[in-house]
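Case study B.
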Amino acid sequence: GEDVEQSLFLSVREGDSSVINCTYTDSSSTYLYWYKQEPGAGLQLLTYIFSNMDMKQDQRLTVLLNKKDKHLSLRIADTQTGDSAIYFCAERGDDYKLSFGAGTTVTVRA
Amino acid sequence: SAVISQKPSRDICQRGTSLTIQCQVDSQVTMMFWYRQQPGQSLTLIATANQGSEATYESGFVIDKFPISRPNLTFSTLTVSNMSPEDSSIYLCSVEGLAVNEQFFGPGTRLTVL
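Model:
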């Protein structure tokens, strides 16, 4: 089965950039996703990248994909207190099902 | 993006009882899924809800415990049967959006079993 791994915690100072890393094992992944979950809330789709791309930028978010190494990262520029949340990386295969990482808890400190 | 609602948003139930969770989408979607998020954990796919036919369950999940209905393209239910405290989790439905690469999640149902 698919295996997605993430570091569990990240602490960053307000205004700095955050980089969250993820590795996956399924070489047939078609899309890779980043979701955000705030306390007590559901999952918010932040961005996704097609497996044939290596970079996608959307305002403060930059996704980098190294398909050879099966490594995905999410960079948040100018991190704000509202960015404190759990960030999940997920991969999707041909069957539309998502496999999630354990989630990275990002804490933004003043 | 699709707007997804779930009912109830939370519930506290006694062991041995059953709870049915509803998922409503504001537009017709082809794919609907049910996930479980145990406390402090990631999401695990329970099943794919198929319109007009039996759901497709993932390894470790069975129909007797988690019966699913999907009568049309905008609605699905998940029942958690004969509950035990180990079923305490957040249950989320998700849908494949109009742009087929995007999957959106409902707000979740937080279930506590005593």
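The longest strand of chain A covers residues 43-50. The remaining cases will be described in the next quarterly update.
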